[in-house]
Design a protein that fits this description.
The protein is α/β, with parallel strands linked by helices. Helix content is 44%, strand content 13%. The strands form 3 sheets. The protein has a 7-stranded mixed sheet with strand order 3-2-1-4-7-6-5, sandwiched between helices. The mean pLDDT is 94.
């Protein structure tokens, strides 16, 4: 292999000979290894995009004969994270024999169900629509990827001639055709008409490359994409400035984030008119180069070319007619300016649907934009969850790269609207959507929980993520917060949370946390005021500093977080929930508790006052009253436990059972119990309830609300 080029500039050569040697003889393992390497480089393909396969001999479990079997990435998978469980395995001879029953392109969708009759491994993932594209080619290892550099050529007006000239006829060309059985036949025909080619370019779509071994396919793929990228780089700027030159200059980074934080909740409100959406923001340099350019006005309405791109980004983006440095403080004026743009976009999408629909097309989907471009600032994307919004941004960035490349070497062409519609509202695509898991109770919702690096707050945050929400973890202790963030990433991945150091007595810190929520997710829907502390002293022992600290954190902190939350929620205009974690002590009098108990009582009545004021904005305010939640509690780690034990004449170790025995249910209260109560308030079943109190204390009769 010493004569093979491994010094690439535009792609990553990741092949490890020692690792591959361990897999020698196992073609399926080598397929998975190769796939993971290809998927690790987003310049080669995007998340969930592309497909890889291998063909090898295997024993038929029914006859004992050695037969050729194809293993291919199954429907809905991602090659970067592919495992054997994500593969479909099919008998090659059966798959190819389906040509005998193929009735023509108007009936090709019916062939998908027939793939199941070709299954070799009963534990197979469902075969994807790309199955015949791989099966009808003879090569042992095949890569079908969506590299920006190749799609730029595939989407160029002169793409076919450029491909022929660039590769001296060693890369074939197949015009745009919707993926499916017929495209597989076209690939086979292209190979038959061009024997000896090393790959095929699919017009407006992507690239097929192959080899007789996993390594040969891998290196062939890298070499072809590298050559495409080199060609683009050589041509940038030759015809003229990239994207026609820059029309405006971006704001400075800090100012871009400031504008994004101010605008995101308003955009999210518009985009959530049908379904609650989660946002993502990027001011990547590639995005800024495009959205600040003279060609933006011409290129943006054209839409994207590759099916993977527009399936995730919609037919085209919404470009905001808004000065980069505009004053966004007047929310009503801002909404009045933006509302016509959203109405026009929805009308455009409805017209697109009505013009292109077929008799059996699925019903129109959400007509709001997915991609929103703010020249001088950045790109917002909105989708059902954070991962989908983030991936949409990645895909539109891919589309920007494609437009940049195509314009440099020729002229960018997008798919005709009808072809795009036939992909977007394809019955097979609709079936895939219908198979997706149903939304959870908190899907599409954003929760900020104060004091969520441990104890009750962390339990609430975990419960909310498990129920579909994204969360903003915060704590005034940076080390504790970092540890919680690492725990959440290990348990839930990177998309479901962010962190913000926050002292609830500091208005600047509160604003910074809400700004981070807006940039990370688009705003906020749920506030859990949980941050707290306790001081247990006699009247004689209480000092002014104790009193001030308790009221600053518990009462003022709750108010100022609620104030900031209400500001964001009103921007969104889709309602919201505020749940205040108060205490049984708000209702029950006890010794050595004047400061803490009275502050808790103030929290409780403040909740009622806020509920009365915010109801008109569909913002609900409710209270959960815990008692004696000792597990993982900062409060109990301090002097509170000693103080309460002293007040009751017992030891600290006896406190949990003491508290349990004084309840009607004889139960110890855990953080998860409080999390469940919060979920009850915000999970949708109590959407018409506000100003209420839910005691979670095991049953303390003096705390019954009268």
């Amino acid at each position: 292999m010493s004569d093979i080029k491994i010094d690439f500039k535009h792609v990553s050569y990741l092949w490890d000979e020692s690792k591959a040697a361990e897999l020698a003889g196992d073609e399926v393992a080598l397929l998975i290894y190769r796939s993971n390497l290809l998927g690790a480089d987003l310049r080669l393909t995007n998340y969930g995009g592309g497909n890889t396969s291998c063909k090898a001999m295997a024993k038929d479990p029914l006859t004992g004969e050695e037969l050729e079997v194809m293993w291919i990435k199954g429907s809905g998978g991602d090659i970067g994270t592919l495992k054997k469980s994500g593969l479909a395995a099919l008998y090659v001879d059966r798959l190819r024999s389906l040509k005998n029953v193929y009735r023509g392109i108007e009936f090709e969708d019916e062939m998908v169900e027939l793939f199941n009759h070709c299954i070799y491994d009963l534990n197979s993932k469902a075969p994807s629509i790309d199955t015949p594209l791989h099966g009808f080619l003879p090569f042992k290892h095949i890569d079908h990827l969506h590299p920006d550099a190749a799609i730029a050529i595939a989407a160029a007006k002169d793409g076919e001639q450029i491909t022929k000239d660039l590769f001296n006829g060693t890369i074939g060309w197949v015009d745009w055709q919707k993926p499916g059985f017929d495209l597989g036949l076209q690939l086979q025909e292209c190979l038959e008409n061009n024997p000896g080619i090393r790959g095929i370019m699919l017009g407006s779509h992507g690239l097929f490359t192959w080899g007789d071994t996993a390594y040969e396919s891998y290196i062939n793929t890298l070499e072809v994409i590298e050559k495409c990228a080199e060609y683009l780089e050589e041509n940038y700027g030759k015809k003229g400035p990239v994207f026609g030159g820059q029309k405006l200059t971006s704001l400075e980074s800090a100012d871009r984030l400031k504008q994004a934080a101010a605008l995101a909740p308003v955009l999210r409100g518009f985009c959530s008119s049908k379904t609650s959406m989660i946002g993502h923001f990027t001011d990547d340099s590639r995005v800024l180069e495009y959205i600040n350019s003279n060609d933006l006005e011409r290129l943006a309405p054209l839409g994207t070319s590759c099916p993977d791109h527009f399936l995730r980004t919609k037919i085209s983006p919404l470009v905001l007619d808004l000065e980069a440095a505009a004053d966004l403080s007047d929310v009503d004026a801002l909404k009045a300016k933006l509302s016509p743009a959203f109405e026009a976009y929805r009308k455009m999408y409805e017209d697109y649907y009505n013009t292109c629909k077929h008799d059996n097309s699925p019903a129109i989907r959400d007509a709001n934009p997915v991609v929103i471009l703010y020249p001088g600032v950045g790109m917002f994307t909105f989708a059902k969850d954070k991962q989908t919004a983030r991936v949409a941004a990645e895909f539109y960035t891919n589309a920007i790269n494609v437009m940049k490349g195509a314009e440099a070497i020729s002229e960018y062409t997008s798919l005709p609207r009808q072809e795009a519609f036939n992909i977007e509202y394809w019955l097979l695509e609709e079936a895939k959507l219908q198979r997706m898991p149903k939304p959870k109770a908190l899907s599409g919702r954003i929760a900020l929980i104060t004091g969520s690096a441990g104890g009750i707050g962390k339990a609430i945050a975990k419960k909310f993520v498990q129920e579909g929400a994204v969360v903003i973890l915060n704590d005034m202790n940076p080390e504790r917060l970092q540890s919680a963030g690492e725990e959440f990433e290990a348990q839930f991945g990177k998309d479901n949370h962010t962190t913000a150091v926050m002292d609830v007595t500091n208005n600047e810190a509160i604003k910074a946390a809400f700004d981070k929520a807006a940039v990370a997710f688009g705003g906020v829907d749920i506030i859990i005021n949980n941050a707290g502390l306790s001081i247990s002293k006699t009247i004689a022992e209480h000092q002014e500093k104790d009193w001030d600290l308790l009221y600053d954190v518990l009462v003022k902190g709750q108010f100022f977080v609620t104030q900031a939350a209400a500001h964001v929620m009103k921007k969104q205009d889709i309602g919201g929930d505020i749940v205040n974690i108060v205490s049984k002590n708000a209702l029950v009098s006890g010794p050595n508790n004047a400061g803490y108990g009275s502050a808790k009582a103030a929290q409780l009545h403040l909740s009622r006052l806020n509920a009365a004021e915010l109801g008109a904005d569909r913002i609900r305010v409710n209270v959960v009253n815990p008692d004696a939640v000792i597990s993982d509690s900062n409060i109990w780690a301090g002097g509170w436990a000693e103080g309460r034990a002293k007040a009751y004449g017992i030891t600290v170790a006896e406190l949990p059972q003491y508290y349990a025995k004084r309840t009607l249910l004889n139960e110890i209260i855990l953080p998860d119990d409080i999390a469940n109560a919060c979920l009850a308030f915000v999970g949708g079943l109590l959407s018409k309830s506000t100003g209420n109190v839910l005691n979670v204390d095991g049953g303390v009769a003096p705390a019954f609300v009268r």
